[in-house]
Write a structure and sequence with these properties.
This protein has helices spanning about 25-45, 55-65, 85-95, 105-130, 150-155, 165-185, 195-200, 205, 210-225, 230-255, 260-265, 275-285, 290-310, 320-325, 350-375, 390-395, 405-425, 440-450, 455-460, 465-475, 510-520, 535, 555-560, 575-585, 590-595, 600-615, 625-630; strands at about 140, 330, 335, 400, 480-485, 495, 505-510, 525. It is globular and about 85 Å long. The strands form three sheets. A four-stranded mixed β-sheet has the order 6-5-7-8, sandwiched between helices. A two-stranded antiparallel ribbon has the order 1-4. Helix 10 (about 230-255) crosses helix 26 (about 600-615). By secondary structure, the protein is mainly alpha-helical. About 50% of the residues are buried. Mean pLDDT is about 90; it is low at about 1-20 and about 310-350. The protein is about 55% helix and about 5% strand. The N and C termini lie far apart (about 85 Å).
Length: about 625
Amino acid sequence: MARSDEIPVPQPTGEPRSFSLPGTLAQRWNALAVAACGATVLVMGYRHRWTNDDALIYTRAVRQILAGNGPVFNVAERAETSTGTLWQWLLAAGSAVPGVDDPLRLAVALGLLLTVVGYLLALDGTRRMIRLTRPAGALLPVGVVLLLPLCATWDYATSGLETGLSFAYLGGCWWLLVHARVLRARVEGGGPALPATAFALGLGPLVRPDLALVSGLFLVALWLMWRPGWRTTLGWAGAAVALPVAYEVFRAGYYGVLVPLPAIAKEASGTEWRFGWDYLLNTVNTYALWVPLGLLTAYALHAAVRRALGRRPGDAPTPDDAQAPDGLHGPAGLHEPDGVHGPDGTRRPCGGHVADAALVGAPVVAGLLSAFFVVKIGGDFMHGRMVLPALFLVLLPVFLLPYGRTTAALAGAVGVWGLVCALALRPPIESPDDPRIVFDSHTVYQHILGDRHPVGQLAHTTTPRAFTTAARRTIENGNHGLVLRLPYDKGYPVVPLAPHVRAPVAAAEARLGHAGAVLPLDGFVIDILGLANPLGAHTEPVSHKKAGHEKPIDRAWIVADVTAPGTSVPGVDSGDVRAARHALTCGPLPELLASTREAMSPARFWDNLTGAWDRTRMRVPADPVEAERALCRRG
């Protein structure tokens, strides 16, 4: 074994020895603790396995890819409905394997597996961080215990959404960052480049657009730990942005906008502080999270004060320092001289404490900023879903803590809260008193579908519903018609489609995933909430009752878009339809629709690419009459 790979073993001193378990017993305990945490996520996630309507949005796009129609929701319209780009393509790759006939079931299995992997990587990363200063000794699960008993954790271990991939990405990034710190501690001179680590850290925007923030902070932490020369820095930057930038060029040229369509429909750049704060409290208060978070904060402050008092110039080394390998000090510290340069010009860190602060601070700051972002945009309608990644990040450095009297007391107190939480604390099915709808999506879908574990597509399409009945009757009769959901659920009339609509059947429905599962792949699904509707996504918000559903489209727009002039629909104002037909010929709307519906060609790709910025920012009035007045410049 090379000298640089040796881990110095602390020698006996005259100081009193702190209590510790024998080496082999401690190792077994640590392995058991990590395995138990992973097993808890696996078992509880499996017991709560389910999928929701949003998962069906992913799987229709996956089925379109497998059918050769490209990453679209409708054959005749290029709209990116998958917020998690990597999740969509991962499901497509897995569904191409012989024997996999239901992408939704694959999403459940893969989501659960990735969630468990994410937790195991995170735990091992924290273990490795602690081993920088404590080569031996028992570790106690503490921070991770704040996540394990949450009903939201169990629910979103599956759900069919990209949450499992998000946890795997976050846990993997933490593991890679700690590994980079370990390498830095062992390297004497200029260290090797870490382009593969930079590449992995840079994938955040493709996991979820909001994880670009995490990518950036983790990359900054990597740079602060190594402080490489400018050539290496440029190499890392190139590796980190290569795939996200390449896909962004594809997105802009293929779809004509800079972000997935749901990000436009949900106004992800908007500000809704009040709703976001209520959403955060919906999670924190439900599980009394302020109790364990308060205990951890007090522990952190106590440890910081003790460390500060023990590091004053001239003070004797603390027992913890005496146990650390030569050159390692503090919770994960590498003490190095400032201003040292390697033979390749690589600059050593400005002191090991800077590297340690970067390592520990990156996930904490990323988690706090992620929570800030969730509050800023107004939260979500699914209980706990958007809070979990932020909480996961903040707790990463304290997922495990070294055994000691204080940490044992802390672990015991957190464990008591965790037991109460797991046995008694459950989210309300709905929050009718809140200004914005937040509900326990898992329980709601169980009740609606009459299935304890709705994990396959059939579980969503076999339950009798008015829309399902009308759509299937239209398909069976061979009618070239539009199944239109009227406002306030007043019915589903079937309206003849215009001759220019090539789809054999069309449907305008609020439950986008359900409609996509019922209609054939060559059917035209019109989302009345804008998530998959290029026109609806670019209208101005008119409702704030449900996060991500602020843009219910006036039915007049739909009738004007896909039916012949003169078509009358009960419940839809004919004057609004005439205004909508006129507005669709004015201003930027013809070009907006052409960017998604015109046949793809090099010229179309270039026009989409160069106009993506303006298209992404464009908004039109939701009311057809106001839109006609604004776009067609009528008095």
